[in-house]
Protein 1
Amino acid sequence: MADKIKAVVMTAPGKVETQELPWPDLKPGGLILKMNMAGICGTDKHAYKGESILYGGTEAEQEIVYPGVRGHENVGTIVEIRKEDQDSIEYHGNRLKVGDRVTMCPNIICKKCWYCRHVLTGKACGL
């Protein structure tokens, strides 16, 4: 397994560069994808332009952090699943395995915790 990955990092407004980063830690229930394609969404465009406040004037207002890897709308190939999780990672009853091509939704919410009920998905939810 490689000990480094390459990522396109937005280091500041208007500044993007390719960097080598450490191989990510694989958390229980997670998997690691090699990105095949990533889209540029409105949030990425605003971050590039330096418009770093998201959802301004709302309860969900937050600041975009630099540096950051953008491109959360993506497709990738599974390259690693923890041995302990190989039989439990599935989608609609189909077991996922290394080599499968998948997409993800970074905005999945539990609809129960305060953060998900207030459009702050990914802040402290256990998902």
Protein 2
Amino acid sequence: MEWTTTQTSGDSADNKVSSHYQRTRVIVEMIFCAVIIFTSFTGNALVVFVACKDSTLRTTTNIFIQNLALTDISMAIFNMPFWMASIYHDNWIFSQLVCEYQAVTLFTFGSASILTMALISINRYFKIVHPQIYHNYFGSKVIVCIYCLLSWVVGVIFATPPIYGWGNYQYHRKFMTCSVLWDLKHISFVAIFLGGFVNAVTITIFVCYYKIYREVKQSSRNVAAYANNVTSETDIKILKSTFTVVCGYIICWMPVSVVCLTETLGGFLPQACYGVAIFLMYSSCCINPIIYGILNPQFRRAFIQVFKCKSFHHDNSSNQDERQENASATLPSLAIRRIASANKIS
């Protein structure tokens, strides 16, 4: 009898510890979730605001950045609140219809976001490496808007496989979000989406930025006789910018792709892997304004003016400098500006 009482007391203590751990975990996750939602909305909203307010930011290149900001804002408003509610309640508390809605928005906004990142890398590649044919593909704002629209269309296509009999919309307890769940019967679609689409985007981003870096480094050597110190500093800035873009994408999106593919193939992963993967995926929405906005010298000037409450007016020489810097996006180097000037990139 005494042994039973002792055992019961031990179980009660263990339950209290477990309950305390669960409450602490939920509080920490809720804080992270709230920070992601707030920064995703405010950061991307600021990108869209300054792009609309400042006439020098209304370029074909920045249309892609605005589109990326819109996908991230949409994710923060129309998808993340359901994820946050599921974390708080440790379950899905909404209807099946709402679950299907969240799954569709997750894939639509997510696919549109990573496609836009690929388009940004392609745009920068042509603008810097092949400026002579850049205007054939990106010279018109109408064409660029069509590219952006297609990114949303492809996102919808990838979000609706259950309509065609591939997978189903369900609440995923480990991810704490509704998603499209597949099994081995639908491995062909999983292979296309995760193995083909995601890897193709990753390779595209990596190759484009590698060739941009190589082109700028070669140009830096050509002007090294005039500015040895400047060009070596430029190489470092270029490498840092390229490294940030590529690593930011890989860190945020590859874990969730690997986890989903592993699960679909029948593999086992601990709960922590799912939690980290989904947090990193959603975190891409709040780091994109930093990578594609704040690191862009033209956007950075506009942000400073917003916080200083200054008017959005620049003289002609300043506008020209900013247009050239925008041609290099987050690669503000002397070498690229010389390329832009030589090829008369607008």
Protein 3
Amino acid sequence: MCGIVGYLGPKNPKDVIMTGLKALEYRGYDSAGVSILNNGAFKRVRAEGKLSNLSEKLAKEEFTGHLGIGHTRWATHGKPSERNAHPHCVGNISLVHNGIIENYMLLREELVKDGAVIESDTDSELVAHLLDRQLRITPDLLQSVLAVLPRLVGAYAIVCVNVNQPDTMVAFKNGPPLIVGVGADAMYVASDVQAIVGYTKKVVYLDDGEVVQVQGTGYKVFSASGKATDRPTDKPVVEINWTADVASKGGFPHFMAKEIFEQPRAVAQAIQPHINLSKTSVELYELGLDVKALAEVERIFIVACGSSYYTGLVGEYMIERLARVPVECDIASEFRYRHPVLPKNSLFISISQSGETADTLAAVRLAKQAGVKVLSICNVRRSSIDREADGHLYMNAGTEVGVASTKAFSATLSLLNLFSIAMAKAKGRLTESEEQDYVRQIQAAPAQIETVLNLDKFFKEGADKLKGYRGFLYLGRGVHFPIAMEGALKLKELAYMHAEGYAAGEMKHGPLAL
């Protein structure tokens, strides 16, 4: 996912924007850029490659403005290059965009016929052209945005500024996340809280189909289908309760190592709110479903992507074994395309560390349309999936910076264990003593993980022995089969080596032939 940071305030926009982009650097990108309204004109600096390349260019420039936007890009339309990097500046408009404009070919043909000179290969620049053209008809940026929005098909989070409105940013959301930060003397717009948490802990989460006008030290939210003269939507400010200390590696060589060794604490934080210590029992206080509602559940659907999908497969084994409720676990991107049948009294469980996984969010909305209750397991409160869900289980793992999931994976497995116990208890399939035994085992998990992590010297020796091999096969049976697939995924993500996870009983169907 690309990164967006916008700033309006008394500080140097360059410094605030670059700090925000660096906080989002872990997400991956191929180019970056900044555009600042400087003495009545946009001053844009872009660079291919790392943010350090952009920083070197910015160090040679002087900025005097108080309004700016910045972006880290992961190429979709157009190759990675400075020419295709954001922000895009067209006439009086400067703009950054996350997402994909699906009807970009039609828009491009229309704009070229209208005489537009298109400089990049991106779909994003086309939106800037549409807005600049509309400004000639309706000089107000908000009015122009509301006029252009019906022309856009696809998923987008866009922030734009008008050279003639030096105290205004307008942003609009349809899919990718977008938030507004409210400071004491400044305003922020970003794709992720992490970009601005060092400056403010007061944020407004935008929903799909919303447009926000940021002016001075205030904001107004409108419906994308409305008019600038409509009464603004009442959107509350949310106070977030975490800090920017995630930028520290805590003495570890990289975030990945830090987060691996944070797993004992992450698991403890995940389970602690849901265990009644006096009874040694499970109490899922934020589940949103009481015992009666759980008892009425006849089928469970678990939908997720990547590592979260593998935790869901583990959950499938656990729930069916303990609660004897049939479970289907699907990859979110495939779920919608098989025309799923969601019977009455089904429960839909979505798993997403960020709470913003696009395919999982789309599957959640499909389930809600079918009238099925949705339970969200996520790590980010007030994320898009969290806001859509009827019930919640929070990982409480802290921000996960590493691209490969570690502590969130372990925290999710812990929550699925607790949910399995709660479901079995609601179904009358678990005695009090059996529940207490399971809870004690879960409570022992953080210490057991700590013991395993103390074997890191053994792991290093093993890696040294295996480093010359070109392919790896991970085997597992039962609940360990999805763990094998997760192990193979980790090797692919981190070592860029070929690896496959296989059911142990299927070795003769493929692996042995190799």
